[in-house]
Design goal:
By secondary structure, this protein is mostly helical. It is built from 4 helices and no strands.
């Protein structure tokens, strides 16, 4: 009977170790989930802070723009104004580029549909060649 008792004791020990290992894994998973949740909440609060700082900065800038900034504020106001002007200039360039692209696409569409008759007709004094004339057949 000693062999059976030893086996029972071994299985009991194995079961205890498996339960303990499972509990440790579950504790680790729960801790990881809690850490992830807290990190997410921290990031949410930091994003909220950044939005509030941006909003406050815009309000403050508008007040400075309308008034006279002091010597310490002037460089930041000048940089913001310069950046706004640069963004506006870039937007104008982009709009012009898109307009030019649209005109080229429209011209290509007209040529493809046969409405562009200048490109299809030969110049005065020229003759239209057929495939047999260009290949010698």
């Amino acid at each position: 009977m000693s062999l059976i008792d030893d086996l029972n004791d071994g299985f009991a020990e194995f079961g205890r170790m498996a339960r303990e290992g499972g509990r440790r894994i579950a504790d680790g998973v729960n801790q990881f989930a809690e850490e992830t949740k807290l990190n997410s909440q921290i990031r949410d609060q930091e994003r909220s802070q950044a939005k509030a700082f941006e909003q406050l900065g815009r309000i403050y800038y508008e007040k400075l723009r309308e008034g006279t900034p002091d010597e310490a504020e002037q460089p930041a106001v000048d940089e913001i104004r310069r950046s706004i002007d640069e963004v506006n200039a870039l937007k104008e360039k982009l709009a012009a580029l898109k307009a030019q692209e649209a005109q080229q696409a429209e011209a290509g569409s007209e040529a493809a549909s046969g409405r562009d008759t200048d490109a299809a007709e030969p110049e005065a004094g020229e003759t239209a060649e057929t495939d047999s004339e260009t290949t010698g057949n």
